[in-house]
């Protein structure tokens, strides 16, 4: 398995490098806002790439590792969608032009590869030495999941009061306006940051915050660093195009947060009970997939009912025919 894993690491590096080069050379050169149709095409392309790689894992490392990758990918993809709600809020707060958003998300994705890689390999080393950390992760996920399910209030994210924003503005002078897609410019002989750099710092910090949930969650599926990291990367890879698919109707997924909470609580409970009962990976995959599908279906169903009620209300307000 060791030599096979080394080969797969090389294959993974080649595949990711090729996909990023294609993304940078084709997708990122478009300055016009991505249309939902184009973004949907790219999202399907990233999902297909992940499934093809999953097939390679299954073929080389066996069904167990294949199911672990698929489960981990599904968990990380779902948790990544939660990031998009925050990105939408950040972009709206800083009034980032839509044509600049794809550049921010591109560099945000690259930063996430590095930051999550550090988190994963540090976490793997700690688990190998102190196995009890898994139970700590499990308890944290159960707490976080229950909190997401029972609290109706939105996460209070105020980009303007972010310590990162204050730190960047304190260390580097920031221009008042955007300057194309540049992160830094020179004005009056002085190097200055543009608001785009401030937003990028917020995006990277946000990903670190979400990694606190997502990394322990994937360790609840597997502690194999190869499966953990590759499933994370493939989930993050399609995050940018998925943003442009969902940006215009994210408010329709009202119950997604509750579904994610149930998933986190399930994974956490699975980690806590692992010493007494090991939940088969196939069952874990089925439970996670069914929970996420149900949360989306209930969300869209509620949205349709609300629209019908609003339409019926407008119809009842119309004056009737005179007697």
Class computed from helices, strands and strand pairing: mainly alpha
State the end-to-end CA separation. 85 Å
Poorly predicted ranges: none
Mean pLDDT: 79
Morphology: globular
| Helical content band | over 70%
Order of helix and strand elements from N to C terminus? HHHHHHEEHHHHH
Could you say how many structural domains there are in total?
A: 1
Strand adjacency order, main sheet: 1-2
Radius of gyration: 22 Å
Q: What is the number of beta strands? A: 2
**What is the strand content?**
under 5%
Q: Give the biggest sheet.
A: 2 strands, antiparallel
Give me the number of helical elements. Answer: 11
Describe the protein's architecture and organization.
With 323 residues, the protein is mainly α. It has one domain (2-305). 75% of the residues lie in helices and 2% in strands. It has eleven helices and two strands. A two-stranded antiparallel ribbon has the order 1-2. The longest helix is centred in the C-terminal third of the chain and has 37 residues, at 281-317. The protein starts with a helix and ends in a 6-residue tail after the last helix. The model has no long low-confidence stretch (mean pLDDT 79).
